[in-house]
Amino acid sequence: MSVKECDHHKGKRRRIFLRIFWGIIVFLFIVLLTILLIWAILRPSKPSFILQDVTVYAFNATVPNFLTSNFQVTLVSRNPNDRIGVYYDRLDTYISYRSQQITYRTAIPPSYQGHKELNVWSPFVYGTNVPVAPFNFEGLRQDQINGNVLVTVRSDGRVRWKVGAFISGRYHLFVRCPAYISFGPRNSGVVVGENAVKFQLVQPCSVSV
């Protein structure tokens, strides 16, 4: 008799456990479905970036293949969303030449960008005796002699989206801004200090998330 009662209690506990388990699954499904519906309705758009200007304080290529450079760049970011905020948890800015990094990374402080808001950052990025690949170094020296060097201002980081009280997971952010730096008599920049030249660019950047 006691064995039958024990089996009965075990079966009852199993049914209760299954009900709780499926109740949790259904609840999570409803929550995820609600989030997806809100996400689809709001249609979040990635932020847009503009490279406003670049100030060159140093740009010295020395043999055999080293580059010492010092820039200040101004990046303007805009959140195009009406109901979605953007958390910039991490954003590192640096400069590359022909896909090779030629400065150290400079971290921009974490920030929040509200609906339709603009953020403006002006970090200094520099590199001292940074080794450049030989084939890139020759191209760099030749471009500098010709009076125009095309570099790319890059910002890599992680962002989160905020919809009401909901905050998403982290997404990778990649920003690429081409910038022409002029040298010699064709220099189109404005002298702003001793050996410093500022280039007003207002150059749209490519953004991927």
Automatic annotation (TrEMBL):
Signal peptide: none annotated. InterPro entries: LEA_2, NDR1-like. It is found in: Membrane. Its main location: membrane. Residues 77-177 form the Late embryogenesis abundant protein LEA-2 subgroup domain. Keywords: Membrane, Transmembrane, Transmembrane helix. It comes from the Eukaryota. The chain crosses the membrane at residues 20-42. One of its GO terms (cellular component) is plasma membrane. GO terms for biological process: defense response to other organism. It holds the Pfam family LEA_2. It is a single-pass membrane protein. This is NDR1/HIN1-like protein 1. The gene is LOC113872075.
